[in-house]
Amino acid sequence: MSNGNLRQRLSARDTDVLYWKERLQIAVDVAQGLEYLHNGCKPPIIHRDVKTSNILLNKKLQAKIADFGLSRDLAIESGPHVSTIPAGTPGYLDPESDVYSFGIVLLELITGLPAIITPGNIHIVQWISHMLKRGDIQNIVDPRLQGDFNNNSAWKALETALACVPSTAIQRPDMSHVLADLKDCLEMVGPMRTQRIDSYKMGSSNSLKSCAVDLEGEMAPHVR
């Protein structure tokens, strides 16, 4: 597609940096696609390889999910001959749910960082957990935005992303809930790009710190 894939765009030079509202709209587009696969298809379809390089952007920056080579329908996935071999890409990998992988994509949109941060091969969730101890969203959101984002929206987006990435699938929301939360994030962003509203920050920063502590004990797959 005309704007390549999301990984390429997030890695672009400063003049092509995605605005905060554009990032949220891309997240909503992808969440809508996954919600349709999970709830609109009969039987439901699990993509199994959701990642930024598999999200294509058209000239209007509308996002489309690509590469269904690993996808499985739930009727097959729940049958008696299900393979237990994980499918997908390191950093995004979870054999049970697309929700985890989407959470990683959302963290990449928020931070501008890849799923595996080099040097050090640090998983993005581990990095987020460390940064949350400072309690400052400015240290987490992509610095190339130069603070030009809605604080309320950023905290809620981060909270939504972290809800997607516990190691146990039963702890994660379904894509319908994720989509609803992201639409709320988008509604918080008004016509002006620069907004500094801190009412959401106080409550969410405390809950996110608690979430970070929980995540540190169980988190992210090591890169081998």
Gyration radius from CA atoms, angstroms: 17 Å
Q: Helical residue percent? A: 40-55%
Biggest beta sheet attributes: 2 strands, antiparallel
Helical stretch tally: 8
Rounded mean pLDDT is: 81
What structural category do the secondary elements indicate? mainly alpha
Coarse morphology: globular
Number of DSSP-assigned strands: 6
Strand order of the largest sheet: 1-4
First-last Cα distance: 32 Å
SSE pattern, N- to C-terminal: HHEEEEHHEEHHHH
Tell me the quaternary state. Answer: single chain
Low-pLDDT ranges: 74-87, 192-200, 219-224
Strand content: 5-15%
What does this structure look like?
Pfam families: PK_Tyr_Ser-Thr. GO terms for molecular function: ATP binding; protein kinase activity. It comes from Vitis rotundifolia. It is a single chain. By secondary structure, the protein is mainly alpha-helical. Helix content is 44%, strand content 6%. It is built from 8 helices and 6 strands. The longest helix is centred in the first third of the chain and has 21 residues.
